[in-house]
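Please, structure for the following, as tokens.
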Amino acid sequence: MPHHHDRSSGKFPFGLTVATQGALTHLTADDILLALGRHGAGDWGELEAGDKAANERALQTEGRLFSAYRSVTGTRFYVITECDRSATTVLLPQEY
């Protein structure tokens, strides 16, 4: 999988983009790249309305951005961008 450094093709910079061992084991590169594209576009995935609203506020206040998605095989996973936008991590719920 290609590494994207300081990716900023969406609404905010990703910083260093990494995936945990669990994510790399259970997700395909396509799962991860699709989720990163959605995350960067502000499509937060399978979140409650309150969590989506918190992300919209975080875009303005430099808070942490959190998204939840499912792989093509149904595996739930998260994408989290740090408050300072220094890093974005793809991880499984049990790794959170």
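Residues 1-8 have pLDDT under 50 and may be disordered. The longest strand covers residues 65-70.
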